[in-house]
Amino acid sequence: RRILHGDVGALVSLIPVGGPVTGITTNGLQWELDGDTFEAGTTRGVSNVMRAPVADIRIDSGCLLVVFPT
Q: What's the rounded Cα separation, in Å, for the pair 19 and 55?
């Protein structure tokens, strides 16, 4: 689990690393996820947007790279 604190409108990218990431659930992002799976190489998680000053990202398994300006 990761909690992000940032500006509304900031870009956030979620990128699977080394294989699939399962059970991705987010809150506080423009395009929220609810138990989704990302396969390695997907671009589905690129360029999401903070819609609140705090975002919550959770996964069940795998390795998810979170790219977020600080």
A: 24
